[in-house]
Amino acid sequence: MKQIFHDNEAVATSVGFILTFSITVITFILVMNASYDMMDQAEQTVMREEFEIHGNNIALQLTEIETMVNITSNAGGEIDEIKYEMLLPLKVASDYYSVEFSNQTNEMIFESHGRDETRVKIPYELRNIQLMSTNISSASENHYMIYNSTSNMVEIH
After folding, report:
1. Residues near 106 by Cβ (< 8 Å), separated by ≥ 6?
2. What is the pLDDT along the chain (157 residues), one digit of tens a residue?
3. 74 phi and psi, to 5 degrees?
4. CA 30 to chain centre
5. Which of 71, 120, 129, 131 is the least buried, fewest Cβ under 10 Å from its Cβ?
6. Could you give the CA distance from residue 45 to residue 31 in angstroms, rounded to a whole number?
7. CB count, 10 Å around CB of 66?
């Protein structure tokens, strides 16, 4: 009976198991945390690239509107209104986003949830017509660019 109380083998085995298990759990948590950080960075990269693609498409549409207005006015014609549907996705990387159009800086600013990591500035150039400064949200789905000849301005709705 006295040998049972003085035998430390069972304690050493239990402590060894607990230490090994704890180290394994901590290592697993660290690896999972690192992979989530990498996935978040990849998601932000995808968002920025998607924003650049859509921004460049909008800049191209603005250039097309200005070209049509210039060609028509040089030929002596008149345009009352031009309407373009902006094909923007509802969500990018499972998040809603907003687009700010600035007439002062001639930039479109795409961002998701106000995070600097996802902010992308896309320049555009209009020489003979103006773009109305406005903000749009992807949550409102359908968006249009409308050229108004009386104000010589493109409005975003």
Report:
1. 123, 124, 125, 126, 131
2. 456 556 666 667 778 888 899 999 999 999 988 887 777 788 888 899 999 999 999 999 999 999 999 999 999 999 989 999 998 999 998 899 999 999 999 999 999 987 788 899 999 999 999 999 999 999 988 899 999 999 999 999 9
3. -70, -30
4. 28
5. 71
6. 21
7. 20
